[in-house]
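Much of our argument rests on the idea that a fold can be written as discrete symbols. Part of our work consisted of pairing the sequence of a single chain with a tokenised description of its backbone. The amino acid sequence and the backbone structure tokens for this protein are reproduced below.
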Amino acid sequence: MNRTPRIRPVVSCTLLAAALAAGATACGGSGHPLAEKPYDAADEISSNVSEGDRKVDPDKPLEVTADDGRITDVTAVDATGRHLAGELDADGKRWHSTAPLAAGTHYTVRVGVEDDDGAPGSRTLSFGTTAAKKFLKVAFGPRAGTYGVGQPVTAELSAPVRDRASRATVERALRVRSTPAVTGSWYWVDDKTLHYRPKEYWPARATIEVTSGLAGIRVTDTLHGAPSKALKLTTGDRIEAVTDASTHSMTVKRNGKVINTIPVTTGKPGFATRNGVKVVLGKEYRVRMRGETIGIAEGSSDSYDLQVYYATRVTWSGEYVHAAPWSTGSQGYANVSHGCTGMSTGQAEWFFNTVREGDIVEVVGSQGETMAPFGNGYGDWNLSWAKWLKGSALQKNTVPDRSDTIQAARLRPEV
């Protein structure tokens, strides 16, 4: 090492005693190593990356070595502000990254050192990484706007991700922040689809921000993350509609307070309405509903071809809450529909104007099966929190219960 040795001032015992008697608080003056300006340690620190215009392969780890003295700390940050994780050897001679470098970005690395006398030094390195060749894109859903408290957040990937470690990399980079804060988790619906929901419903009047930190991050041997458009959602009031098929009645609450009780009819035997929590998918003022679309032969006693008004959709297969003026005599007394929840035209109009996408529509007391978690709308809330966590790659025992697999959806209305 050619650096000129540092000469530190000597404070005599007599002067020190006088300083203490005068109430001084600086015992060693500027001679204390921590009080000194760090020296330039460029000659003492080396790395395995090339600085300047030459790009570095992001698949290779970053290494920093102390040729003299020892390394005290290393901070590596990319152009987006992400810190690169790393580990320092016990002797302080070598630091290496423990996470992959991001592709197509620029890094600034600040290295702190200490010489044999304890004097601090520093060196700053900078380098760029080569761009990725294949990208993994993420599209968040739903579209920006205001939703009910049951609305899950979705993430659609441009390519399948099957390996658990790769899935964990994706999950760590997909961030959901809610104000007020909630506990939530992602669930891998399939190799290209994730859903995010809190442990309980979202708070009313919440703000939800969804972002991705995947840009440049290596996900698999051939895929690096691409930049993604952030998403911002808000929730409205907590609207919950609970239909008891056994008593033929729907109770609607806003923020926990009952605002309407509606006589209804639900699915008759053979067409029983699905039990469980569903989420409003959309609203259609008028829908044509035909029996042939759900397998009912034309001309049979169950056949129908109707123009239905004030239709609020809760499954992709065609389950709605809608006006059913032809069954007003049964509403509140009997279940006579082909799976939908029917009510008077006036009540259906009120319901249609009260709810929004993401609001909760729950059915209890029906002889029907339970709403599937995925594939026919948003049945996410029909999984317990313990089962939901099994769908995350960041949790232990992350193999989803296959009894919760996607149910094949019929794509036609069922009145």
